[in-house]
Structures are given as structure tokens and as C-alpha cells.
Design goal:
Layout lengths: L1 H31 L16 H4 L27 E2 L8 E8 L5 H10 L4 E4 L1 H4 L3 H9 L3 E4 L12 H19 L5 E2 L8 H9 L4 E3 L3 E3 L4 E3 L11 E4 L9 H14 L3 E2 L7
Parallel strand pairs: 1-6, 2-3, 2-9, 2-10, 3-4, 5-6, 7-9
Antiparallel strand pairs: 7-8
Helix pairs in contact: 6-7
């Protein structure tokens, strides 16, 4: 009995010490763990959305649109626009092709409430329409950029109509709506393009005044700065960096520096 007591004392002490280690260590780790860092899920000190996405101040909410939809041209064809005539301090973000399908971009659009317009090409989107369904569910709009991204100018009417109406039908089957806006690939078009677009139910042909490249804005005409009503194109790039989120963050900073915010293009056209 005495021998058993001598052995039990050290063994019991070892068990108690081991038990303390197992209970203290997770507590110490959780006190210094990622859940207490700014922006971590579940943290009471989570950073606001604009900080998480690299902006120093929140985006200003867009005003109520002060311009009604543009009328058709005297010949009955849809208008061609690269900017909206408005005094509202807004510009419009448009994304082409659908090649970049970063799921974090969906989070960015949702958290910043970005009213973006996606001009999709069926042959580029391929099996990735689910990504754009998620974007649409968080507020993005889906518009027409042809079936195969063919340069339309100079093609016969039947070929141009097939490219435009074919994508209209494809997007309607995918999303249940027919787009009202159309962007011709490469920005090239002719009167036949406008006729085909009108016959496919297009309300406006959308070009752009500014293009967001890797880290700079280029302009098609006028002063090299953003103006209210400018339509900005964010095309897909051939290199993986900077990614779509990085380019969008940089673009939003430039928009804020110009004293502007982002409006919904479909509210103006």
C-alpha cells in the first residue's frame, strides 16, 4: 500500500500538469489567433468593406438618375454611346468578354455594392455562366457582346444578326432576360450592325470613353481625365496580374480622386 502511494503521487502530478497544458495552450493561442485580427470573419473589429477592398473612404452612393433613356436616332436605329450626357457625378463600370472568373470579385461587387455591367461573349464565357449568375445575384447586370467576339464591321447582315441575336437567345436561356445593351467587339460597327442590333431588340450600342489597362486609364478623345457620364471599359487581360480585383480597386481610387462615384448604366440608358 505504501509503495502504491509513492507511485501515485508523481503520476497524479504529471496528469494534472499535462491537463493544465492542454487547457491553457488553446486559450493562449486563441487570444493571439487570427479571429482577433482586423477584418477576420467573426471579429468584432472587422474592417468596413471599403477598407477590406483597399479604399481609404467609402464610395459615395450614386444619385437618382437625372436623365431619361436616350431616344432612338431619326433613322430608328439604336443610339451609339461612349458616355452619358448627365450632370450627375457618376461614371459607369463595364467589363468585357467574361474571361476572368475570380469568385472573390463576386464578394467585392456584393460588399461594395458596385453596379457593374458585364458584356459577355458566349465562346469566352464557355461553361462559366454560373459565375455570372452569382454576379447577377449580387447586383451586376448581364449584357450582350456577341457569340464569338467577331469583328462585325463589314460582315453581311445575316452574319451580324446571327452573332447578336444568337447571344441574346443564349443569355435569355441562361438568365431569363434579354439584354437591352450591346457592345460590338473591338468597338467596331457599321450601319448593318445597328440594323441587326435593332432587330435583335437592342436599345443602345455601348462603346467607352476610357479603358482601364493594367494600372492606367487611357482615353479615346478629349481631356485625359474622367468626366461625369464617362463609360469605362475594363477588358480582360492576357496576364494573370494585376487581377480583376486589383485593377478595379485602382480604378475606384481614380474615380474617387476625380470627385466621382459609380452609377448603374442601365438606369441611364
Amino acid at each position: 500500500m505504501t509503495g502504491r502511494r509513492r507511485l501515485a503521487g508523481p503520476a497524479l502530478l504529471l496528469i494534472l500538469l499535462t491537463g493544465c497544458a492542454l487547457t491553457v495552450t488553446p486559450t493562449e493561442r486563441s487570444a493571439k489567433g487570427p479571429s482577433d485580427r482586423v477584418g477576420a470573419p467573426g471579429s468584432s473589429s472587422e474592417a468596413p468593406p471599403h477598407v477590406r477592398w483597399g479604399l481609404t473612404t467609402p464610395l459615395s452612393p450614386p444619385p437618382q438618375p437625372s436623365l431619361s433613356s436616350p431616344s432612338r436616332r431619326p433613322d430608328g436605329l439604336p443610339p451609339v454611346v461612349d458616355r452619358v450626357r448627365t450632370r450627375d457625378k457618376v461614371v459607369f463600370l463595364t467589363y468585357d468578354d467574361g474571361a476572368e472568373k475570380d469568385p472573390r470579385f463576386v464578394d467585392m461587387v456584393r460588399e461594395l455594392r458596385l453596379p457593374v455591367s458585364m458584356f459577355l461573349t458566349d465562346s469566352v464565357v464557355g461553361p462559366g455562366y454560373g459565375h455570372f449568375a452569382r454576379l447577377r445575384s449580387v447586383g451586376a447586370s448581364v449584357q450582350n457582346h456577341t457569340l464569338d467576339h467577331a469583328a462585325l464591321r463589314g460582315l453581311p447582315y445575316a452574319g451580324q444578326r446571327a452573332e447578336i441575336c444568337g447571344q441574346q437567345n443564349k443569355l435569355r436561356s441562361r438568365f431569363g432576360v434579354r439584354p437591352r445593351l450591346f457592345r460590338p467587339p473591338y468597338g467596331t460597327y457599321d450601319t448593318t450592325t445597328l440594323r441587326a442590333a435593332a432587330d435583335c431588340g437592342i436599345a443602345a450600342v455601348v462603346l467607352w470613353r476610357a479603358t482601364m489597362n493594367a494600372d492606367t486609364l487611357t482615353y479615346t478623345d478629349g481631356a485625359p481625365r474622367l468626366h461625369p457620364g464617362d463609360i469605362i471599359s475594363v477588358p480582360a487581360t492576357e496576364t494573370p496580374t494585376p487581377n480583376l480585383r486589383s485593377r478595379t480597386t485602382h480604378l475606384l481610387r481614380l474615380i474617387q480622386q476625380a470627385g466621382l462615384t459609380v452609377g448603374r448604366l442601365e438606369d441611364y440608358l
